[in-house]
Amino acid sequence: MNPPDRDLPAPEGEVVTSKGFLRRFLDTPADNTAKTMVVALGLCFVASMIVSAAAVSLRPLQEQNAALDKQVNIVQVAGLYEDGIDVAETFEAFEPHVLELATGEFTDQFDPYQFDDRAAADDVTLSAPLDDDPANIGRQANYVTVYLLRNEDGSLDKVILPVYGYGLWSTLYGFIAVEEDGNTIYGLQFYEHAETPGLGAEVDNPRWKALWNDKLLRTDDGKGELAITVAKTAPPAGEDYHIDALSGATLTSRGVDNLIRFWMSERGFEPFLERVRAGEI
Ligand SMILES: Cc1cc2nc3c(=O)[nH]c(=O)nc-3n(C[C@H](O)[C@H](O)[C@H](O)COP(=O)(O)O)c2cc1C
């Protein structure tokens, strides 16, 4: 039976039934274009609500995991990682400080446990654009978080410094651990990048990472020139300053060379490392 016309009175003797919107919608033929559109839009809406709810509810967990991953990497680059250890507990041995790069001095302006290095690099009030930008990072924050590891007697054991820069496909984020002499590398480790597995991603290969151990940043001939180099051949300063480039991944290796030399330069951690070398930390 056709639905009664709302404007006309029902013919005499006919029972009027008023169908609800849902009933009329369900009764519409399945091949009706409007019905198909409404069903598709409804499905999209429900799916997007589920995805949004999942994203919002999982965000704290994701942030917690990212913080833990960073801690794992700091513990690893400092050589304190062992299977089964309580990372959060081991991480308590590290002393975080927010460092003003230009002066090499720590600042109390920010809480080192809350300071977000990446957000600072994007914040126009806390960073500056780079014209000469070998690490390909666009802007450089004026402040970064560094971590100190001390011996039991309170003397400095290592400093853990954040480094990052562009490889071939992605920005590589990592940490370099430098010994208390401010010049000997203990290790380098990246915790985030998107270089190709088997090629650029070999930066994570333990054998390649081991090459960094005991290499020197600056020449110890009194001149203190920045000499650390990632390349296929050793720099003039010699093998003590040479990390062999990854084979088949020259471009990622060049990116690592650029970022390390940038962050270890006067525009990066050199003012701070100078203070480490002077025994001021
Ligand atoms: C699919 C694909 C992915 C690649 N990924 C990387 C990479 O992550 N890092 C890199 O340096 N080169 C990568 N390359 C290789 C570069 O294009 C280039 O050939 C290489 O860096 C040269 O290194 P080599 O001089 O040691 O051979 C990739 C090439 C292809 C085809």
UniProtKB/TrEMBL annotation:
> Major place of localization?
membrane
Coiled coil start-end:
none
Q: Does the keyword RNA-binding apply?
A: no
Q: What is its EC number?
A: 7.2.1.1
By its UniProt entry, which SMART domains does this protein fall under? FMN_bind (SM00900)
Write out the entry's keywords from A to Z. Cell inner membrane, Cell membrane, Flavoprotein, FMN, Ion transport, Membrane, NAD, Phosphoprotein, Sodium, Sodium transport, Translocase, Transmembrane, Transmembrane helix, Transport, Ubiquinone
Cofactor dependence is on:
FMN
Q: Where is the FMN-binding domain?
A: 167-267
Please list every transmembrane segment annotated in the UniProt record, as residue ranges. 37-58
Localization per Swiss-Prot or TrEMBL: Cell membrane
Q: Which family does it belong to?
A: Belongs to the NqrC family.
Descriptive protein name? Na(+)-translocating NADH-quinone reductase subunit C
Q: Where does this protein come from, organism-wise? A: Paracoccus onchidii
Gene encoding this polypeptide?
Answer: nqrC
